[in-house]
Amino acid sequence: MYKRIERAAANLSGILLFVLMLVTFVDVLGRNLLNRPLNGASELTEILLALVIFLMLPHVTLRGQHIVIDIIANAVSSTVLAVLDALAALLSATMFFLIAWQSWRLADKAMGYGDSTATLGIPLGPVLYGLAVLSGIVGLAALLSIPLKRLEAAAPQGEHEPVIV
Questions:
Q1: How sure is the predictor about 62, in pLDDT bands with cuts at 50, 70 and 90?
Q2: Helix or strand or coil: residue 116?
Q3: How many domains does the chain fold into?
Q4: Confidence band (pLDDT; 50, 70, 90) for 93?
Q5: Nearest to 121 by CA among 49, 35, 47, 19
Q6: Is residue 163 part of a domain?
Q7: SS3 label, residue 40
Q8: Measured distance CA(8)–CA(12) in Å, rounded
Q9: How high does pLDDT run on average in the chain?
Q10: Which residue from 6, 20, 142, 162 could staple onto 93, CB 3.0 to 4.6 Å apart?
Q11: Local structure of residue 102 (DSSP, 8 states)
Q12: Nearest CA to 63 among 9, 144, 161, 156?
């Protein structure tokens, strides 16, 4: 079940990224060749970019594929490193739960006021609700990554293949 959800999120994210590419291409082409930019391109770009990022963050977080700078990894024991990883995951989860909570509150206000984008009139409430839900999922993924990192550390070396997404 999780693999299906993960695959669906990746596919949707890929489709949205392709749409983002098309919007940018048409906007640049129209602006430079026809002197007529695509109406509402910046609004679409903002919304699509946010959705692509927040759709892929749970996957990246759960698999621990964030960019990491290992300044002290070789200088401390594996136990200290595990504690630091757990603290980082807890801090990350806390921050994403706060983002989810604040996004939900902002979505409530946007729905109450009927906020929409200026040019295309896209309602902002549903977009913000979506980002709030996805932020909550990222927070859960950060919490779930703690035991997964322990299992990964306990597994014998050489049994892991690099994950290419």
A1: confident
A2: strand
A3: 1
A4: very high
A5: 47
A6: no
A7: coil
A8: 6
A9: 88
A10: 142
A11: H
A12: 144
